[in-house]
Amino acid sequence: AWMVREHDAGTLTDNLDSFIEEMKDYGEWAENETVQQEIEAFTEGLDWTASDLYDQESENGTHIYLSTVSETEGYLLYCSSPACGIMEKYVYRTQDGGESFEPVCNLSHGMENYPLGFGFCTETKGLIITQNHGSETYAYMTEDGGATWKPYELDVPDASLYYYIDGVSLKKAVDDENTWELILAGVLDDRQEFRYISSDDWETWELQ
Fold this sequence. Notes:
This protein is mainly beta. It has no helices and 18 strands.
């Protein structure tokens, strides 16, 4: 669920995971009708400090996805607004609860579609789901901590009947952190959504 917090620089919109002990999360904010992006650490709901990630690669990031795998380790996908159909996409890793981030890979040209969901179920196994933008691949998986990503497919009923398959969302279940929910959509003149559940680190997905 999206949450909105007021910040003295503007309105922060946050749909991200958080570290258990550090109580930090990340988001984006807009001010004076110009969308600006800044990654900030939120500590105990009171103080904001800028992360060292900002400005390392791009100044026009508008979508940030964070996935934590422990109290200190996590991954972040940082995406820009599309420009001439190209969206910048960078994957980072933190090993100190978000105090610092190190670059893992640049997916700007290797991933044609637009990310809509991002997560890691283990320290090395991650998934990105995407919205169609010219490529039939709707999901990409890494098993080496984000260094490389390969197309990933689920069993979509009557998949060949649709123009294409879109990723919709990827998230942990609210009541069970070991269970993940993934939603895809088959696109014709309308959309047919398919909901999958996995509780074995994505070895299998059960269509609901």
